[in-house]
Design goal:
Strand content: 25-35%
Order of helices and strands: HEHHEEEEEHHHHEEEE
Radius of gyration: 18 Å
CATH superfamily: Hotdog Thioesterase
Helix content: 10-25%
CATH architecture: Roll
Number of helices: 7
Shape: globular
Structural class: alpha+beta
Strand order of the largest sheet: 1-3-4-5-2-7-10-9-8-6
Distance between the termini: 51 Å
CATH class: Alpha Beta
């Protein structure tokens, strides 16, 4: 077991009975530098998310839409083990993910990243924490991320459950298949070796049916599907995506992304279901430029 694993387990034990996070930590910010981006890094992420490698050959500029997630786990981990935050890791699940693409990231770029705690609040599902990430290249923002985690069974649970938007007319269905063992591939490429993805025993101890795929891995695969279905693979037109995770995805499950007509121009609503027809992603919105 590495020293990093020891710190994670120590934090888990220390906060195992914690019922609420320290809300004085809101606004706490850290800054890191990563890079330069290499072609090898890109293809490692492509393989872990079962993306189409032809998108990233022949000197094409853009990295995969969710590529930055492979860099951010050390920063997430800083908050996971932070003594002052009082985060109960054993009950932690990925609840929401949003990404805004502002400028392209290319091979050779050095990335300056800031991450800060935004909201900490009670919800019907448990206590919620939002981490906001800004990735800059040459002092210009490139990607902005909003990541929400829920600590199940904690908080005062006083929040009211909100009704989601009623989807419009269905416009497409497209499926992708996850692979048994993919959670380990993604753990290696992202550095996120949280036990819910790597240890069947500890995953079951936290109330899950077994090891599950990373939420960002599912988000990346859903984004790739939307990219192909709505933009014919043109990443330059991608602007923003957001989604909520409804339930865990087990490695090997087939996932179907369902796109719905939106009343707004340049956007589409979507959700995703597993092979039993149960939602794994909901309240999805994908926004894009209408210019070809």
């Amino acid at each position: 077991m590495s020293l990093r694993d020891v710190a994670l387990v120590t934090s888990m034990v220390r906060n195992i009975r914690t019922k609420a996070m320290n809300r004085d930590m809101r606004g706490h910010t850290i800054v890191r530098t990563f890079g330069p981006v290499t072609q090898e890094d890109i293809f490692a992420y492509v393989q872990a998310t079962r993306d189409d490698p032809s998108r990233y050959r022949d000197g094409q500029c853009r990295v995969p839409p969710f590529y930055i997630s492979r860099l951010l786990y050390p920063m997430f981990r800083y908050f996971l083990v932070n003594r002052d935050l009082h985060l109960n890791i054993l009950r932690l699940v990925h609840g929401h993910q949003g990404v805004t693409w502002v400028n392209p990231i290319c091979v050779g770029d050095v990335l300056n990243v800031s991450m800060s705690i935004g909201e900490i609040a009670d919800t019907p599902a448990g206590e919620f924490i939002n981490l906001r990430t800004v990735v800059s290249v040459r002092e210009q923002p490139a990607v902005i991320g909003d990541t929400g985690f829920i600590v199940r069974g904690t908080g005062s649970r006083t929040g009211e459950k909100k009704q989601g938007e009623v989807p419009g007319r269905e416009v497409f269905r497209s499926s992708f298949t996850t692979v048994k063992g993919q959670q380990m591939d993604y753990a290696r490429v992202s550095g996120d070796k949280n036990f819910i993805h790597t240890s069947t025993l500890l995953a079951k101890a936290s109330g899950l049916p077994g090891t599950i795929l990373h939420g960002v891995c599912i988000a990346a695969m859903a984004a790739n599907t939307l990219l192909d279905e709505t933009l014919q693979g043109n990443m330059d037109r991608m602007k923003k995506i957001s989604m909520r995770f409804a339930r865990p995805v087990l490695p090997g499950e087939e996932i179907t992304v369902i796109g719905y007509e939106s009343p707004g121009n340049g956007e589409i609503f979507f959700d995703a279901v597993n092979g039993r027809g149960r939602q794994v992603v909901k309240n999805g919105i994908f926004q894009f430029s209408q210019e070809q």
